[in-house]
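Design job #97: recover the sequence.
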């Protein structure tokens, strides 16, 4: 969306750090919360300071006793043989595997996430976890606990940052996005036992003894195709706080409650 359109769709004036703080507080974000946020900057309307203001507003409301987490995924550090949007010529595959740079917490950008988490992961006080494809960035009191993840197989299981959020009974904040963007539901895929679940090989460049090499790790075949229906079914039976931050429809959800529901839902509905 162009900036001109965004301004036109903000009849109540600009969103600012202070107005966003008020909106987040009214939604139910509280000091000391452990909060994983999934965001759409454009959904908020015109924001003075853009992504920086959204991040600072959330951190101010949470205070230093709270913890803010965002996905910092870089799915392009993956096997080019599986790329389909778009695919690359088969003749390129081995060259890409040999030449693909290793994951670097500071240098590697996010991919397919959007502007707020890409800005957040660069903040000096933020730590980033180590998985080359599905890292997470964390700020605040529990950031070291959240990102203590150095395993490459079964990337988003109970030992991942998503599992640490679950252990801390954290919350999920959806800003202008739906459950199709709700990464915590992937944790349920690892915990659930359903007939369609299958193990795959997941390739990526890693460093071993100072040398970059291509390695494969085991994982499960994940899918978000049914996440929106799952989320709708959850909301029929459970309390979800809904409100507006700027122009964005937002939801605040208890992560553990949703994941526990999703495990049972997947075991019943994924056949």
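Job complete. Output follows.
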């Amino acid at each position: 969306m162009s900036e001109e359109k965004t301004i036109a769709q903000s009849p109540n004036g600009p969103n600012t750090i202070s107005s966003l703080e008020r909106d987040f507080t009214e939604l139910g974000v509280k000091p000391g919360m452990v909060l994983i946020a999934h965001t759409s900057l454009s959904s908020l309307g015109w924001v003075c300071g853009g992504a920086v203001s959204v991040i600072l507003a959330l951190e101010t409301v949470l205070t230093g006793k709270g913890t803010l987490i965002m996905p910092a995924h870089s799915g392009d550090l993956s096997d080019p043989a599986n790329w389909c949007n778009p695919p690359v010529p088969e003749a390129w595959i081995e060259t890409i595997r040999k030449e693909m740079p290793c994951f670097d917490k500071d240098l590697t950008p996010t991919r397919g996430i959007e502007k707020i988490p890409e800005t957040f992961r660069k903040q000096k006080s933020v730590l980033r976890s180590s998985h080359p494809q599905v890292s997470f960035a964390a700020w605040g009191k529990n950031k070291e606990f959240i990102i203590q993840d150095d395993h490459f197989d079964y990337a988003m299981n109970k030992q991942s940052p998503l599992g640490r959020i679950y252990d801390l009974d954290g919350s999920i904040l959806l800003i202008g996005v739906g459950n199709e963007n709700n990464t915590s539901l992937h944790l349920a895929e690892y915990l659930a036992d359903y007939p369609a679940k299958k193990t795959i090989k997941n390739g990526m460049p890693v460093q071993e003894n100072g040398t970059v090499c291509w390695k494969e790790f085991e994982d499960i075949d994940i899918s978000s195709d049914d996440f929106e229906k799952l989320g709708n079914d959850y909301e029929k039976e459970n309390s979800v706080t809904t409100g507006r931050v700027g122009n964005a429809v937002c939801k605040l959800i208890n992560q553990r409650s949703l994941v526990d529901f999703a495990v049972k839902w997947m075991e019943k509905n994924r056949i």
